[in-house]
Design a protein that fits this description.
The protein is an alpha/beta fold. The protein folds into two domains: about 10-60 and about 380-400, Roll (Urease, subunit C, domain 1), CATH 2.30.40.10; about 65-365, TIM Barrel (Alpha-Beta Barrel). It is about 25% helix and about 25% strand. A hairpin with a 2-residue loop joins strand 22 and strand 23. Helix 1 (about 80-95) packs across helix 2 and helix 3 (about 160-170) runs parallel beside helix 4. The two termini are about 20 Å apart. Bound molecules: zinc ion (2 copies). One zinc ion (ZN) binds near residues 67, 102, 290 and 330.
Length: about 400
């Protein structure tokens, strides 16, 4: 819902404003209706303004999560509007204001139900719905058989035009993943390019050559770096010698490629986060949660994917893992935790870390005109963080999220 035009302006003040390339000390952000109006130092406050005191903390853009499965007990693959809203509200509490619900592997019917539920929530949005749904990340089911990870193996298949055209026809898919080595992958990428999606390769054991062909077909991003992707060692197992370059080398060597990390402190050691930041820089590296339904839930067993038949995973409150096996099974924390960890674990500056959780994913997904930074004209998605980068207030389109 849009705020009435007569609503007083909102002024965020008494904080450090986080811009994509710098910090503005003791500055303000002025919002009118659902838009950001001005950013900078104010001599006088607009008349009748509603003041939001950042109390010496940070005024930051809302986060953008391009890879996320659920939270607060709900997985987007549950396929109901209720589940979608529950997960979107949970992530908003962690500072995510724009979200791309992400599919797992599953049957064509389960995927259709998920897409329809997301469409319903997008069309009938209210101020209580939490993170705004910018589109779906069509992620599973087109994974390589040997890189399915914690997803259901039964729900995996090769891309089939009749199926995916029907999914694309919903027009809600904005990000599309497929393992590059699968038969039909290039046709899938070309279709996704026609539909204007960010095209990504994930859960894949692709070689450099397969990545180069995928690139020709429009692929520009790789899902969760170092997780469920090829390496020189995995390709040696597939092809022997001479050893071949993998997805890792292809991304690092190609300036048009971007990727993402799960910076929860459990998936990747600090030196890998630092390496990714140094090699790729903040414009090619996104922070994602890849969170499952165990976010904000007590430790225990949960279904990953659809509540009916998703694979069982376990959460210890810090990370998800495969019961008994120890292999990791996506994260259970929000983007606020990723931001704090990335800041603590690497030499990236605060503007760079926040950029990786906001403007960079927005740019890659093609929505940076609308969200991703505190720029006049963009949607008033604004966070107040304290000095320890904990989320204190969340505003979505100029509307304060109710404290929970
Ligand atoms: Zn994955
Ligand atoms: Zn995932």
């Amino acid at each position: 819902m849009k705020s009435a035009p007569s609503a007083p302006p909102i002024v965020f003040h008494n904080g450090t404003v986080v811009l994509p390339d710098k910090l503005l000390l003791d500055a303000a952000v002025v919002c009118e209706g659902d838009r950001i109006k001005r950013v900078g130092h104010l001599r006088t406050l607009p008349r009748g303004a509603t003041l939001v005191d950042a109390k010496g903390g940070y005024i930051a853009p809302g986060f953008v999560d391009i890879h996320v499965h659920g939270g607060d007990g709900a997985d987007f693959m549950d396929g109901t509007a209720d589940a979608v809203r529950t997960a979107c509200r949970a992530h908003a509490r962690h500072g995510t204001t724009t979200i791309f619900p992400t599919t797992t592997t599953g049957s064509p019917e389960q995927l259709s139900a998920m897409l329809q539920a997301c469409l319903e929530v997008q069309r009938s949005r209210t101020d209580d719905d939490g993170a705004r749904l910018a589109g779906v990340h069509f992620y599973g089911p087109y994974f390589a058989p040997d890189k399915v990870g914690c997803h259901s193996q039964a729900g995996r298949r090769n891309p089939e035009a009749r199926e995916y055209r029907r999914h694309f026809d919903t027009s809600i898919i904005r990000i599309a993943t497929c393992a590059a080595e699968l038969p039909g992958a290039e046709a899938f990428y070309r279709e996704a390019r026609k539909r204007g999606c960010l095209i990504t390769c994930g859960h894949s054991n692709a070689t450099w050559t397969e990545m180069a062909r995928a690139f020709q077909a429009g692929m520009r991003h790789v899902d969760h770096f170092w997780c469920a992707m090829s390496s020189v060692a995995s390709l040696r197992q597939r092809y022997g010698t001479p050893m071949q370059a993998s997805m890792e080398q292809f991304v690092l060597a190609n300036p048009e490629m971007s990727t993402e990390v799960i910076a929860d402190g459990c998936h990747l050691a600090p030196e890998l986060l630092e390496f990714a930041y140094r090699q790729l820089g903040p414009r090619r590296l996104c922070l994602v949660t890849d969170a499952n339904r165990a976010l904000d839930m007590p430790p225990g067993r949960y279904r990953f994917g659809c509540a009916a038949d998703g694979e069982w995973i376990e959460s210890d409150g810090r990370v998800g893992f495969v019961p008994g096996g120890g292999a990791l099974a996506s994260s259970v924390v929000g983007l606020d935790t990723m931001v704090r960890h990335m800041k603590a674990a690497t030499t990236a500056s605060l503007p760079e870390v926040i950029r990786m959780a906001s403007l960079t994913p927005a740019e890659r997904a093609g929505i940076a005109d609308e969200v991703g930074s505190l720029s006049p004209g963009k949607r008033a998605d604004v966070l107040v963080l304290n000095q320890r980068l904990q989320v204190k207030r969340v505003f979505l389109g100029g509307v304060a999220m109710a404290a929970s």
